[in-house]
Structures are given as C-alpha cells and as structure tokens.
What does this fold into?
Amino acid sequence: MFTLGALAFAAPWMLALAITLPVIWWLLRLMPPAPKLVRFPAIRLLLGLKPDEETPRRLPLWLAILRLLLVSLMIAALAQPLLNPAGEIEGGGPLVVVIDDGWGAAPGWRQRQQHIGNLIDKAERAGRSVAIVTTAPPAIDEQPLPRGLMRPADARALIGALKPKPWPTDRAALARTLDAAPYGTDATVVWVSDGLDGPAATALGERLTAIGALQLLLPEGGVAPVALLPPSVQGGELVLRAARPPADQPRRIAVQASDEQGRALARMEMEFAAGESQAQTPFSVPNELRNRVVRLDVERQGGAGSAVLLDERFRRRPVGIVGEPPSETGTPLLNEVYYLDRALAPFAALSVGDIGKLLQEKLAVVLLPDNAAPSTADSDALAQWVAAGGVLVRFAGPRLANAPDDGLIPVRLRAGERALGGAIAWGEPATLAEFSDKSPFAGLAIPQDVRISQQVLAEPNAELSDRTWARLSDGTPLVTAERRGEGWLVLFHSSANTTWNNLPLSGLFVEMLQRLVALSRGVAGGTFDQALRPYRVFDGFGRLGDPPVGVRPILPDQSAKFVPAPATPPGLYGEEGAQQAFNLGDRVGTLAALTGIPGGATLGLIEAQSEIDLVPFVLVAALILLLADMFIALWLRGLLPAATRLRRAPAAMLAIALLGGGLGLSLPTDVRAQSSGAAATPDELYLRATLETRLAYVVTGNNEVDQISRAGLTGLGNVLRQRTSVEPAEPIGVDPESDELRLFPFIYWPVTAEQPSLSRAGIAAVDRFLKQGGIILFDTRDAHLTGGRSGIGSGTRELRRLLAGIEIPPLVAMPKDHVIGKSFYLLSDFPGRWSGGALWLEAGDGRVNDGVSSLVIGGNDWAGAWAINSFGDPMLPVAPGGNNQRELAYRFGVNIVMYALTGNYKDDQVHLPKILERLVR
Amino acid sequence: MAAGAALPALLVAADRVALTVIQGVHGRRRVGQGDSFWQFRRYQPGDATSRIDWRQSAKNRAVFVRETEWEAAASVWLWRDASPSMRWSSADTLPQKAERAELALLALGGLLVNGGERIAQLGTGERPVTGRAVLRRLAATLQIERRHDDADSPSLPRRMALPAYGHVVWFSDFLAPLDEIENLVRYYAGMGVFGHLVQVLDPAEEELPFSGHVRFSGLEGEGTHLIRRVEAVRTAYAQRLTAQREGLARIAASSGWTLHQHRTDHAPQTLLLSLYLAMAQPRLAAAR
It folds into this structure.
C-alpha cells in the first residue's frame, strides 16, 4: 500500500510500468499516421508523380499526448488506486468480528455495516479469513449464523444480510458457548458493540481476549441507543419518558406521534441533561388527537427500542354514564345524561346503562348523575371498583341533598341545598373562583357567564380544603375529590343539568370532564383472561410486520413478565380490533454504558467512512479516451465523412436555440394590452369584430378576472373550432361604456365588485344590445359560496348594482327542457368551476325575440373552467373536480354559443319526428 | 416506369437552361428554304416567276419576290461519357460530372429540337429525328443507362458509320490518353462529320485541393497511388492537365472541330451558350 494524502495504491509496484512511457512516446512519434484515402478520377494524371519533399511522418503532438495519457491511465488502473484508504489491518491470524445485533444496534446500523465491510475489505487484501459472531439470539424462524472461518466475500454477503433484532443481546450465552478452537489464539478480534453494558460483557470480553487482540468499537453519541418508554400518568398528567445509557454529553431527541396511516400528529422534544440517563416531557397532544395516536418514534433512531406502540388502553377511555339513554321523544334537555353524553362523546367511548351492567364492562370513568342514586349493593360494587383504580364522578341534585351520605361522597355534606339567587333569594347566583394550582383543573379559563345558583354544601373540616378542586367565588366548594385506593371519588356539588347552574352549557364543563377522564389510568390493570395471539410484531428497525412462524402467544399470567425474546418479540398481540401492545423500552431495565473491558481491549469508534475503489472510474476514463482516439484516427484518415457535417451542426443548434429563445420571449404578451389596444379606435374594433365571428367578454377592471375571461373564451373558442362549425377568432374584451356591443352575438360578463356601476350611456348601450337579441351570460362566480342557492351571494348583490336601470324582464330558473340543454349537446347540468348553481333566464312567453332569452345568469364561474394557458392546459382546478366536470363546462359553453347563434332552432328540430310522421302519412 | 418520375425533372431543368440561351441568341437570320417569311426582294432575272409576290408587286411599280428564311435541318448525334470516372463529385454541394453532362446534353438537345434540327444519341443506332418526343426518349435512355451503372462503360464513343455533314457533340472529361482520342476524332472527321468536344471537369480535378499524406485510388480500376505530400505535386499535376487540354485543343483544331471547357461549379448556361454559338456559326452552313 502506497499512500498519497487521500489517495492510495493497493498495487503500487504496477506503477513501475510508468518507466515504459518514454519508450511508448518514442514509438508513437516514430510511427507515421496512415494516409488519407481519396477517390480521384483523374488519377491517371497523378500516376508517376513524386513529390520533392514528403510530409513529416510524425504524429501530431497533441495526439501523442492523448495516447500517452491513455497508457498512463491504464497503468494507474493496474495499480488499483483507492480514495480514503482504510489502511491495513493490524495483527495476524484470522479476523473475528463480534457484532452486537440486539435492539441497541438499530440506530447507526448502516455505519456498523460499512465499518465491518471495510474491515472485511482489509482482511481480503491481506488474504485473511473472516469469522462473524453475533451476540443476539437469531429470530425464531432463522438459523443461527455459522461461526466458523470463511472467505471474506462470504462474510461480506453475510454482513449485508444481517439485521438488528428487536430484543436484547445475550452475551452470557455467547460467552458460554463460543468455541475458540477454529480461531486459534492469535486472531484479530473486533467487537462492534451497541454501547450497552450488561452482566456478561466482562465475561465475554475475557473470552474474546483469549482468542486474540481485542478491539472494542463503541457507537458515537448520536447513534447511541435510546429506549422510549410508554407514556405514564404522573400527577394527573401523561408523561413521556425515555432512557439512555448515562453519557457526559447532553442529548436532545424528538418524539413523533403518528396515527394508523403513519401521518405525524405531534412532535415532542425532550433533552437528556449531561450525565443523566432519563428524560421526560409532557405528552402534549391535544385530546382530540390523542385518541388517534397509535405509535411514538424517536426521530432518526429507527429501532424497536425507540418505538412505542399505544394500544386501546392509552387511547380510548371507556366512560360509563349511569342512567337511561336520552330518548328522542322525551324532554332530553332536562335529562342529566344528555349533557354528559354531549360533553364527552367526542373524546371517549361512552356507554350508558345501569350500574350492574356498566361494571361488567372495562371502564375508566363512571359518571353518576343525581337521579341515578345507587342501591346499597351497587354502592358496594362501585366502592370496590373505585378502590381498584376507577374514577367515579358524582353530580349533586335534589336526591343527594336529601340523602347526604351513602358512602360514595368525598366530603361530608350538609343536608339540604343552598340556593343562591332566584325569585325569593337575596343573593346573586355565584361565579367560579380561579382554580388553584394543585387542582387538576388548573389553567382552565373560566367563562364570565357561568353562574351557580344551587349547590350542596360540605361540612367544613380540616380535610375539606385539600379535597377541594374547584370553588365558587365565595369559597364554598364546587368540586371535591378523594383518593380511594387506586382510584378517585369526585363530586360536583351542583347538578349535571341546568336546573341548578348553567355550567353544563359552557365549554368549561367539557374541559373539566376531560381533565377528570384524563385522570383515570385507563382500563384498570391491563389484565386479560385469555392468551393473546401475536398480531403484528416489530423487526429490529421498529417496523411492524406479520409475526414469523413460531412466535408464541402471550398467556394471561405472563403479561407482567413479558420479556422481548425471539419467541415473543415486541409488538401487538391479540385479535384484530382488540390488541395489546408489548413494547421493548419498558422491559429492558435500566441502561448502562459499556465503556471498556477489563483486560486491555483497545477502544475505537464505529465509523462509516468507506474507501472508494477508483479502478472502475479510471478504466472508464481510459475507455473514453480510447474511443476518442479511435474517432480521431478515423478523422485523420478522412474516413469520417460526417465530420464536415458535424462541424456545421453547432451553428444550426445555436440558431435553433436563438430562435426558440426569441419565441419564448415573445410569448408572454400582456393580455390586457392586447384587448385594450384592440378597442383603440372604433373602426378597428368594427373590423376586428365583424370580419370574423368573435366571442366577447366585459372588461371588469380586475386584471385577474379579465385574464381568466380571455383565457376562458380562448379555450371555449378552441373547443368550438374543433367540434362545431363555429370558428371564432381570438376573443375581444369590451367596455360597455365605450365600445359598441352590437357587433357581438354573445358577451360573457363576469360580475366583480371592482367594476364601477354603469353610466347612463352604458346602461342604454346594454339595454339596446339586449333588445336587439344579443345574449349576455352574467357569471356571478360565487356558486361555491352560495351552495347552489341563487340570490344570496355577494355576486348577486353586485349584479343588482350593475343592472340597476336596465329593463330586465322577469327571470325564472331554467326549465328542464330548455333549448340551452339541447342546442348542441344534451345537457341536464351546467357546471363551471363550481357546480350546482342554478341558471336563470328571462321568463319569455315566446312573443318577444322569438322566445330567446337575452339574459343568462348563473354563478358557476364558467370562464374559470374554460380557461387554458398558452400550452393548452387548464389554468384553474374545478370543484368538486374531475375531467368530466370540465368537459361538461365546455359543453355548456358550446351550447350557449349555439343558442346565441341559432336561437330556438334546435327547439323546432324537436318536432322533426312528428313532421316526418305527417309527411309519411 | 420508376425512372419516369425523375425524367420530367431532368427535362424541366434542361428546358430551363435552354430557355436562357434562346433568349440570348436568335435564329439563323439567313435567307434560305423555309416556310416563314423573311423579306421581299426586287425581282432579278433568273428568279422563277412562281416566286413573285403579286400582291406586294401590285402596291409598287417594281416586282417583288418573296423570300423565306433558311430553314434547314441538320442531324446531330449527342453522346456523353457514362464511365464510373464521371460519377464523381468532390463535394456534396457539387453535381457529379455525369449529372452535369446529362443536363447539358438534354438542354442542348432541347435547343436543337426547337431549332428544328434532328437529333439522336450516338451509339444507340437510332435515326436522328426531330420533335419533343425524341427528347423524352433521350432522357429515358440516359436514365436507363445510369441505372444500369456499367462499370465497363467506355470513356470514349464507339466507332460508328455516320453520314457526312452530320454533327456530333461529345460530353466527357477526356482524361483518356490523347492518342486514343486523336484516332477516334480522325475516324469521325474522316467521314466528314463535324464535332464538338465538351470537357466536363470537377474543380477538384483542376485544382487538386488535397494536402499531406494521401493515398489516391482511381474509379475505373487504375489502382492506387500514394503521394506523401500532395502540395508538392500540385504544380506538376496542373502542368499535366494543361498538356492534356492543349492536346485536346490541337486534336480538335486539326480536324476543324471545337473544344469547350466546363467545370461543374460553373453555371451550365455558359457552356450551352458557347456550344450553341459554335453550332450556329455560318461555317456550319458552309460546311454543308
């Protein structure tokens, strides 16, 4: 190996061939180039002619240099150049690579593979054999890797196929079973570790040192393993935690929450302080989204340890409401269940029923309204359920006021209720005081209009203050709570309907109930009573997949003792729709850092930088030179007739490019300039408008709308030319104030707020135009805002303003069988950019203007649908969309132009069958 | 007939070339036998009384004789060199020598037919006839010959018996050995045939524009010739070419024939004009 900075040659003795270069140079200069071949009719005159002097029989200098370069490149290729040489492997004997392929190796796996690949390359160059040893047990459906010595090429294939496993390494087993015999005692051992310490690390280290010189490679800080733990409840809040092996550097990670389709819903950052191995952050996902979160991932880690699956327990809090479901026909607004149901339905899975039925389900929270007072037996069942971890929320009312103590209240209550305000009371209804910081409601904003007019009062005692979560402004408790066993007992001192207060009508009520539901820890326990089949399991990179054959179901008594292993990889277990998640992060214990092995192992970092073999590049360069040399030789001999033509090609290409550039520059001309320029003089307008049929649009003054109108009529014109005998020229923009409208059969008039109201002359001109049989299509362009109901949009208002003063006959919605629906195409619907807007026509009785309506009014923004750009592509999307809608818009355009040009002609055609029948008769 | 497609194009091109010459040169302007009126002349003793134009004489005191323009048809045999050496051009932009020769041949034929002469292609054995039809036949024959692409097509016309006072026009590069040409010209001149030699050359054949180390190969199996430095032999080549030309001129002059030079990068009209002028010379009539 011969090194020159970043460049090295693996076979440097080949460079000795370079001493032949001068010889080649001399030979090249000596060899004459072959003569040109020329066919010549007058050769008879040339025969026998001998020149006095001869052309020097020399190769041109540049060609000699080119050929010399070619030879140099070939010599360089023979010397096997390398970029970023990896150096040579130290020591002797075979190379034994020990790989930690447990969950901790998933981040930075590519780097590991690169590094090991480089090691194998070096071993290959040194002619050593390689052994691959992995520390994690193989997947249940895979064979353990052969540990014997093998050729480097085989080892490379093995490493390429190796993947990290979604379970921890088992170094103890390896230390026990590793057979050192094949490796001898002078092997070079490289242990590519995952940076995690374990009980058997030392044992394995000693075992490896016995085989040969041990090098321990540790991952860099950025790819050290991080275990993400499932969110847990801490002080009433969900908290997300992560663990890492302790390290000196602080580290910031981001956790992404995603839903079932893999869409990111939230991103939370957390930071490991220097020296810390734990980090946490509030699970700050809005309640509405929390139910949709199915998995959490540490960004840029990509391993089974940094992914957490959330199952039903985390997401949907099953909430029970005791009582009758509110009936449609009764008086739901008096029913307490109605308010609770409305408040919680969006966030929780609700079930309504009596206590016995509810307690059979797995519930996180039970809401107990006042009129559903429990029986004694039910009370006992509820008390047990609360002690096991349930959250019971009671609401006060007349019943509770009369039977203050049934054992299910957090504080002692006085008999009777207290009325604040009302017809015969002195006081005013009370407002709420700010929530204290200790209360789970802390931070909720209190609406000013919430009034409590009746409540039950607690007996004052020492505990009352601690148990109070919400107070009225006079200090009396509104919500009190008591911890009972694992669960909570919560009492609202007022009613769940509006008889005692208006709190249930406010958003605060919803938020308070949400906080209470969040207080619960989900379905109590997470116990189940039947074996769970594997449903989807992780691979080492944290990707969910079908479980491999041989993965065992998890039995009910094993769930707490779940250990990630080949037979039970982490993942989702259970039936479809009812799975339970088993994650890796909370089952690997505390993480410790592997920093070294007692007994003199050298330490190193895993590096991804790989050497680049330059041989192919050099060979390709040599090949290109060889081809070039071939063409040059042909050209020198005059055997390349195309050469003369090629010489002319660049000029032609330049000309084409210049031409194209010129065209491109000339294309974007100002549409408005064209249209206004057209109307510069009346005569010009007359000529332009009458020499060819032209569609016209009214220039509104809103540049955007005018451009769309122009592009729309251009698009419609194209369609007309292609499909009908109407062949309109470029559309013209007209101003009804100054231009002569009578020249046009059809005018498209988009209604905008910018257009000023017409002057008297303008009104007269439009009136004249309409009276003489012209057709104006007014487009209010607001069908998407009015939802198809005409007459309420802002466009309609503007239309009224514009048409004020014009004598408009009564309008009707278009009859079903109107001629517009059959003047060219048979149409029943007239969508533009929007669809569904109604079409309004004159309610003519057929006596005026042959029954042809002069006005067509709609709001579907037809020009928007017709508009095409200079490449013929549509400019604006149509809604709801689809080519079909645009096609229908064009068809409507064709029909209305046909209507403008042919009037009721097609209406007469409808009678043709009858006429034919008469003729036959 | 597939070649028929190319035929009209060649004819049209030939007509176009011929037309420019007709505009520049006018008829024979001599008194002679013919149908068209030429002039009135005073009666002279010896004139046949039947030639007196009585109507004209009645207008005057003198008696006038009506004279017609000389209209005599000569027979012209046309030939062009179809050997491979003629199927060559030094650049894509230039026509092949054979193409130019055919064009000139047809254009000349057109002019002659318009002038009432009878023409035929030398070597086909056909009798000279007049009329546009012979032009079409001529073009078709040329087309067929070109398609056959005879590698052994001769560089000089074969010897054939022609009537005296006939005319021949030969288009060739006349690079054959001079004694062969001289023998042939002597043979025809000996029969009393009057001839015109048209040497059609490519500019490259005149200028030898190549340079450096070149291997030349002939088109008619002459073999190859390697020249190490073409620039050095350019003068010697030019001398040989001039010698060939002078030899040709000498051969033509000795038999009373004319020699015309033409390069394919020059306009064919100039060639046609000089040919036409040469053929319209009074000497021609006198030789008759």
Notes: The two ends of chain A are 109 Å apart (CA to CA). The first helix of chain A runs from residue 21 to 30. The interface with chain B takes residues 32-33, 35-47, 49-55, 57 of chain A (CB under 8 Å). Chain A is about 30% helix and 20% strand.
